[in-house]
Task: inverse folding
């Protein structure tokens, strides 16, 4: 694991890259597509927990460090779901320092370096060849700049190359950062991971507790009957996401009421609803399995050392962070991550009815009767139900269609029909049989409200609703380009503490990697840090000063 810096101010973003290696070189694949990341404090408690998408080679993210964090050292721990079946010393580790200038520092002392780092995580004891200690003369990572000294808002050009002892070029996968020299601390980079060939790994031939995630996040849990507290065994249930696009999954629970849903490309915070397809009068509740490792043991985090001589540099760094946050929304041309298109699980509807195209009606019951001829209101077991007229004239549907409201299956049709038509935005119709695994639905009727938040239907005890956090959304590092007179004369201040960050720099065996970026408005001493792995799995790291006057 690499980070853009070693020292952060509470409230900043930590940029990181996670590598996957088996000792013979960076791996181009993995069992899991999700990486779990814990940021642990000195006692070993999780201060931050996030999930990161991993595409088989690259796992990178921008992690917000809350302004509530206390000053101190923190251990970053990265692992996959499958890795939780194995010893923790196989995880990825790194230590960072966080300074919170807005909290009392009375509990921080000016202490000497702490050498009581856990041996099992120390890079000094790592098997040679898995992680090659930085500074190994057998491999040289060279950084070249086009100038010795730069001015403010000036372009910087870097060339990176990797050679072995014989002078032959090597391939490498690197992350590169350019930061203020004060924010780099080599004493914190001692934790990595280890490999012990003599270790006896657990027997996973039976039923492992933690499964790999080859397609995306796994949501595991058990659904219970509220009145009896007994699990709903062999019961058809659904998982859906609240929103204007229907994203539903259906499955049958096992003999213990357990379920597993796979969420592909799931990012950010979203509301999920889990419920049985047939309503349970007494209601249900769900217990979800924690996706993160639940053991938080002390791993020998070195003590935080507060250097009073650096107080002025800390103060300048804090001011720079505050200035950048104030003007962040004013930065022209700032890149934003492209949001992936979201589609209904049933594809494109056969017909979409826009409610605004018609006269104002009172409620959904009237909407169905007046403007949706494909849908018929009938009685089933003395309760109102909705079915669609098949597009096939030789086929008659006698059962209720799958009825959705803001992407969530609805069982109480009577309550649905009483919702005001003013709250409704559109209705989407599938008027043919829809097959989902072993399930067959005789048509689909999807009602979408203007808010798209399922707020029009009163919540009942028949379903479980919760905000669920997916993987962090991919965020590109923004580095302004002062390549025009207007950009050079821009009055928007630029006081970046990290001048540049790129998590996926590839050095080939026949070409150097070229990087360009611009300096900021702050004259200071910076440092270029390049770190990663060669194609043979050797860890390499190199630094070079960068002076801005």
Result:
């Amino acid at each position: 694991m690499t980070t853009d810096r070693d020292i952060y101010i509470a409230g900043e973003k930590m940029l990181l890259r996670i590598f996957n290696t088996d000792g013979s070189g960076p791996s181009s694949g993995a069992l899991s597509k999700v990486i779990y990341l814990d940021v642990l404090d000195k006692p070993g408690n999780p201060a931050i927990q996030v999930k990161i998408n991993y595409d088989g080679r690259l796992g990178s993210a921008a992690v917000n460090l809350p302004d509530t964090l206390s000053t101190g050292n923190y251990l970053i721990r990265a692992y996959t779901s499958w890795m939780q079946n194995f010893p923790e010393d196989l995880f990825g580790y790194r230590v960072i320092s966080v300074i919170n200038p807005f909290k009392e520092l009375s509990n921080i002392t000016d202490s000497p370096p702490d050498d009581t780092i856990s041996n099992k995580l120390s890079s000094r004891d790592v098997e040679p060849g898995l992680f090659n200690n930085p500074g190994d003369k057998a491999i040289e990572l060279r950084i070249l700049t086009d100038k010795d000294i730069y001015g403010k808002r000036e372009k910087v050009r870097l060339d990176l190359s990797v050679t072995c002892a014989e002078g032959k070029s090597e391939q490498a996968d690197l992350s590169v950062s350019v930061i203020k020299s004060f924010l780099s601390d080599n004493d914190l980079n001692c934790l990595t991971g280890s490999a012990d060939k003599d270790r006896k790994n657990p027997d996973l031939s039976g039923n492992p507790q933690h499964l790999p995630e080859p397609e995306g996040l796994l949501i595991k849990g058990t659904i219970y009957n509220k009145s009896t507290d007994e699990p709903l065994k062999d019961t058809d249930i659904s998982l859906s996401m609240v929103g204007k696009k229907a994203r539903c999954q259906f499955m049958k629970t096992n003999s213990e009421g357990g379920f597993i849903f796979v969420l592909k490309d799931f990012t950010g915070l979203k509301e999920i609803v889990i419920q049985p397809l047939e309503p349970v009068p007494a209601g249900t509740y769900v217990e979800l399995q924690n996706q993160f490792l639940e053991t938080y043991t002390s791993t020998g985090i070195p003590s935080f050392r507060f250097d009073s001589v650096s107080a002025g540099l800390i103060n300048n760094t804090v001011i720079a962070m505050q200035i950048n946050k104030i003007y962040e929304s004013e930065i022209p041309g700032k890149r934003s991550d492209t949001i992936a298109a979201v589609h209904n699980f049933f594809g494109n509807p056969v017909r979409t009815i826009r409610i605004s195209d018609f006269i104002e009606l009172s409620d959904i019951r009237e909407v169905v009767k007046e403007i949706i001829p494909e849908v018929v209101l009938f009685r089933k077991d003395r309760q109102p139900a909705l079915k669609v007229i098949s597009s096939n004239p030789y086929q008659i549907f006698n059962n209720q269609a799958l009825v959705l409201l803001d992407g969530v299956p609805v069982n109480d049709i009577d309550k649905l029909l009483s919702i005001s038509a003013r709250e409704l935005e559109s209705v989407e119709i599938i008027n043919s049989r829809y097959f989902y695994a072993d399930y067959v639905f005789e048509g689909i009727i999807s009602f979408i409200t203007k808010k798209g938040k399922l707020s029009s239907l009163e919540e009942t005890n028949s379903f479980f609703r919760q905000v669920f956090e997916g993987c962090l959304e991919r965020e590109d590092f923004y580095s302004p380009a002062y390549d025009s007179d207007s950009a050079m004369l821009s009055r928007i201040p630029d006081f970046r503490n990290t001048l540049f960050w790129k998590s996926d720099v590839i050095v080939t065996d026949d070409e150097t990697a070229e990087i360009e970026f611009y300096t900021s408005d702050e004259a200071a001493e910076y440092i270029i840090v390049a770190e990663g792995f060669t194609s043979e799995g050797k860890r390499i790291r190199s630094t070079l000063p960068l002076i801005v006057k």
About this structure: Residues 109-135, 333-337 have pLDDT under 50 and may be disordered. Residues 528 and 544 are 5 Å apart (CA to CA). The helical segments are 311-327, 364-371, 413-417, 485-488. The two ends are 32 Å apart (CA to CA).
